[in-house]
Amino acid sequence: MAPVAHLKFMLYKMVCLLVSMTCGVDEVKPFATQWYKTKLLWCAHPRRLHQLENKPLRIGCDTVQPVQQVRDLGIFIDGELAMTVHVSKTVACCFAALWQIRSIQRSVSRSVLLSVVTSLELSLLDYGSATLAGIPKYLLDRLQSILNAAARLIDQAHKYDHVSPFLQELHWLSVPERIKYRLTALVFRCWYDIAPEYMVRDLQWAAYRDSQQRLCSSSSQQLIAPRTRLFTVGDRAFGAAAARIWNSLPPTVIPLQHSIV
Description:
Elements: H1 2-28, H2 46-49, E1 57-59, E2 62-64, E3 69-72, E4 75-78, H3 84-102, H4 110-126, H5 137-155, H6 164-170, H7 175-191, H8 197-201, H9 206-212, H10 238-247
Helix pairs in contact: 3-4, 3-5, 4-5, 5-6, 7-10
């Protein structure tokens, strides 16, 4: 009976959350006019997602039905937060672009072909890649197949040729390394307070904490990695994933001074 009681309690909390969301939305409704663009997405663990009731959100006289996925700033988010939909969309768009580029492969020089592939393929691949930290390996392999196909296209290699020499010649990072680079670049911007404020708040610097406690380690450039409950979701959050990657960098590539110390 314990699992049943827990499930009823979770459903009760969901209904209470839905009521509070409706009341909050009613307060800001007079200031907004484009409610037809609003979408509702319930996010939960895959084992709990099917247990949620698909209750709509009331906005005045209108109702917003729950959906399976949403698109925010070009990034597709599903209810499981697995980024499967985003990866599938990215792979489909990139291979469609590669198919179009292949038609002009013999009509342009290698330098022009490299510029076209870089501007079309790599920009699509790298867009929003910081949100892909911690995704499963099979999704990373699907994204890596885009780089492999693009490298073979530039060098006019066969399908089963070993692709590592081509990637090294082009100086292209692998997909996991590209994700790490994007995260460290965002942390670097937070370091100098040139990133959005909501991202700066997600990071906690050891130097700032230790300077308040007057510790000898106040000159540290490390980040404090927050504790997380679920490695499938919590470890993928920006504050946790960025802290782990930043702390793993060698000291020679970390800035010497911090703007808040």
